[in-house]
């Protein structure tokens, strides 16, 4: 039995395979769990494009649009 792929809803069979693969890669990268560099909790996430913050200690940092580079 083959492994089931993670399917993302929203695009369906539209826009071509190349764009759907790029969308999937960016979406999974954006939604992955991150640890806060200050307190180490798992509540570190994106507030807006390029603004990342921790909901526990309210630490804010500027980064790239879809990922954080510290």
Automatic annotation (TrEMBL):
Gene: rpl37ae
Gene Ontology process terms (BP): translation
One Gene Ontology term, aspect cellular component: ribosome
Keywords assigned by UniProt, alphabetized: Metal-binding, Ribonucleoprotein, Ribosomal protein, RNA-binding, rRNA-binding, Zinc, Zinc-finger
Organism, as annotated: Candidatus Nitrosopumilus sediminis
Alphabetized GO MF terms: large ribosomal subunit rRNA binding; structural constituent of ribosome; zinc ion binding
General function of this protein: Binds to the 23S rRNA.
Cofactor annotation: Zn(2+)
InterPro entries cross-referenced by the UniProt entry: Ribosomal_eL37/eL43, Ribosomal_eL43, Ribosomal_protein_eL43, Ribosomal_zn-bd
Family, per entry: Belongs to the eukaryotic ribosomal protein eL43 family. Putative zinc-binding subfamily.
Residues noted as binding Zn(2+) in the record, renumbered to the chain: 36, 39, 54, 57
Subunit structure and binding partners: Part of the 50S ribosomal subunit.
Record's cofactor remark: Binds 1 zinc ion per subunit.
Zinc finger boundaries on the chain: C4-type: 36-57
UniProt protein name: Large ribosomal subunit protein eL43
